[in-house]
Amino acid sequence: MAPSTSRVKLPSAVRPKKTLDQSGRVVGPRGLQTRDQLLDAMAALLAQRSVREIRVVDVARNVSTSPATFYQYFEDVDEAVLRLAERASERMPEILALMGRSWQGRKGFETALAIVEAFISHWDAHHAVLRLSSLRSDEGDRRFLKLRRDTMTPLLQAIAKLIEEGQRAGRVSKRMHPIAAAAALAAILERLAAYHRSLEGLGVTREHLVETSASILYQIVTGRRAP
Amino acid sequence: MAPSTSRVKLPSAVRPKKTLDQSGRVVGPRGLQTRDQLLDAMAALLAQRSVREIRVVDVARNVSTSPATFYQYFEDVDEAVLRLAERASERMPEILALMGRSWQGRKGFETALAIVEAFISHWDAHHAVLRLSSLRSDEGDRRFLKLRRDTMTPLLQAIAKLIEEGQRAGRVSKRMHPIAAAAALAAILERLAAYHRSLEGLGVTREHLVETSASILYQIVTGRRAP
DNA sequence: TCCAGTTTCTGATATAGTGTCAGATTCTGG
DNA sequence: CCAGAATCTGACACTATATCAGAAACTGGA
Questions:
Q1: Average pLDDT, chain B
Q2: Nearest Cβ partner of B184 from A173, A188, A202?
Q3: What pLDDT sits at residue B107?
Q4: 3-state SS class at A144
Q5: Which of the residues in chain A have pLDDT under 70?
Q6: Do B176 and A226 touch (CB under 8 A)?
Q7: How many CB atoms lie within 10 A of CB A140?
Q8: Helix (H) or strand (E) holding B59
Q9: Nearest Cα to Cα of residue B70 among B117, B36, B96
Q10: B190 touches chain A (CB under 8 A)
Q11: CB-side exposure of B50: number of CA atoms within 13 Å?
Q12: C1' of nucleotide C8: residue with nearest CA
């Protein structure tokens, strides 16, 4: 029963995370490169058409490989999207860090502006992936729900904490549930970032949107009117 | 050249809208019934699985008919969804009417509460269809974009008008673009209505959500803290 | 009641994409 | 240069969409 190979099973907490292919084998450098190319091709296609119009054949062809190769690395199209969403979510902490700046007066409004700006830029850069990711969560897909929870919860909690402080200081209405309010603010950011294009038809520029969202964020968090 | 039939071509503005099938023929009473049954079956399925998992065969089977019949009335699954969304959007004016109530003090807050409540109930009743409809718009689908524009624009304008009044009275920050702010508030309603279920995991009840959203709505529209 | 015309429904099928797998191909260290 | 590991792919079984010619059901008038 003594293992004759050098591959010893380590406890999963210690074992470094290696990327695996669909049959559970560790992927080497060449495979990793193919996998990355597939993801890039996927992202490129996603930027120009909706997921439903994306054929695995196209993704594969764009990297001069075959559909079977795609399936070697991803269970299905959604899994590839999930990986892209994970990639995107790695940038979240940068936005989170902005929350720590001052919320006093004019400085505070600038903090709000910076956050909104960062958020919208982030969505602009990854809108297709993020929107899809958000849809899959809404549909109840476990994988995407977990990702959303992991990336949004810290943000919600950071905002909620500010609101609680405001409430303790008596500036912010106690009627609001801090996390619910945080979710509402996040909803503005997500939703407007997702469709600010269609508002341009009504004479609303991106600039307007940023200023307005920042005003609302500032007003809800601090309880004070935007300067 | 004189038409011998009794079917005279009227100007399209006058001609009553008859439902047509895929080959452009007017649908009679029996067909209309089948079509409605198909829509109902579609709605029922949509309530339990995501669109991607809905097979035309299932919809058809649920009304004891064949896929070919489905395609006689709808171009594709999306068209059926669009019809359902249109059905749902007919209820919008009721919400819009609430906007006209008083926005003064405690009464004003009750107005906000009523609007939020109506909106969330509306979404609860049609969430699958509305969410999908919103996704298709985001994806740029013309048919859904038009529907969204037609149903949301009046709402946005009503809110925008209130905000403008507040700005003129000096209660509301002039930094906000009225339509952008209206869109932001609509975003809260849409987004939270769409996923309030997943917030329950964080201890946020539907009740909290309604109160909080109403507070934000009230605060942004009137420039005053919620009572 | 029967018939001709109209409306509605469906079996059969062309088309197209997904996902699998055995085996071919390519790479690597010795 | 070779053995074995890693990677890739042609061929294929399956599943679903969408179409259409013709069958079936219904209708009103003789």
A1: 89
A2: A188
A3: 97
A4: helix
A5: 1-17
A6: yes
A7: 12
A8: helix B56-62
A9: B36
A10: yes
A11: 11
A12: B31
Determine what percent of chain B is predicted with pLDDT higher than 70: 93
At A37-63, the pLDDT tens digits run 999 999 999 999 999 999 999 999 999
Which two three-digit tokens encode residue A26? 């560790």
Buried b / exposed e along B11-37 (16+ C-beta atoms within 10 A): eeeeeeeeeeeeeeeebeeebeebbeb
Ramachandran class of A213: left when φ > 0, alpha when ψ lies in -120 to 50, beta otherwise: alpha
State how far the alpha carbon of A194 is from the alpha carbons of A50, A127, B40, in Å: 14, 6, 31
Entry pTM: 0.87
For A26, the 3-state DSSP assignment is: strand
Q: Centre a 10 Å sphere on the Cβ of residue A21 and count the other Cβ atoms it contains.
A: 15
Q: Point out the residue among B179, B203, B226 whose CB comes nearest to the CB of A202.
A: B179
B80: Cα separation from own chain's centroid: 15
B199 vs A179: CA distance, rounded Å = 9
User: Could you say which DSSP state residue B202 is in?
Assistant: G
B5 pLDDT above the threshold of 50: no
Please tell me the predicted confidence (pLDDT) of residue B201.
83
Backbone phi, psi, residue A26, to 5°: -70, 135
Q: Which nucleotides of D are covered by protein (CB under 7 A)?
A: 6-11, 16-21, 26-27
For residues A131 and A106, give the distance between their C-alpha atoms in angstroms, rounded to a whole number. 33
Overall average pLDDT of the B135-150 stretch = 90
Task: Give the span between the Cα atoms of B136 and B148, in whole angstroms.
Answer: 10
